[in-house]
Amino acid sequence: MPISRRQFVIASTFTAGFALAVQQIANSVIQTSSNNLVSGSISIPSSTGAFPAYYAAPAKGEGFPVVLVIQEIFGVHEHIRDVVRRFARLGYVAIAKGQSGSSIIVYPDAPHAFFADYRPSYRQKDAQDGWKRLQAWFKAKGVATI
Questions:
Q1: What is the distance between the alpha carbons of residues 23 and 1, in angstroms, rounded to a whole number?
Q2: What order of strands is seen across the sheet that includes strand 66-68?
């Protein structure tokens, strides 16, 4: 399929912008050690099939609170895994779910942080709808215990 000059310029500009956006900004990257942690890639079972995740937890003890780390658009890459290890160092079981069949609901008229009830941007109707959808998703996927 032939590509026009215009399509080439648009695609090249997007590709160059994406390449710049994912480059390392700092001279050094924070690397949180996994010493005294249990961590790694796991598969979490659900009623609709397993999904990939990365987790970390303190190596000793039990009954730790759980933190879900939400990935950014680029998935569970090294920075997200590092954030998971940082939470584990603070005494949490931290889990970052990999991409697999999730959906995004857009609330077109809702401002940033519309779900944060302590902010002026709070939108009760949209926030409650999002919370109900989250609970329905957990129920549909089955919640695994660790």
A1: 31
A2: 37-44, 51-58, 93-97, 66-68
CA 77 to CA 55: how far, in whole Å?
12
Element (H, E) at 140: helix 124-141
pLDDT digits (tens, 9 = 90+) for 42-92: 998 877 788 889 999 999 999 999 989 887 767 788 888 999 999 999 999
Mention every residue, 6+ apart, whose C-beta is less than 8 A from residue 72. Answer: 80
Count of CB atoms situated within 10 Å of the CB of 58: 16
How far is 108 from 129, CA to CA, in rounded Å? Answer: 13
pLDDT tens digits, residue range 104-135? 677 777 776 666 666 777 788 888 888 888 77
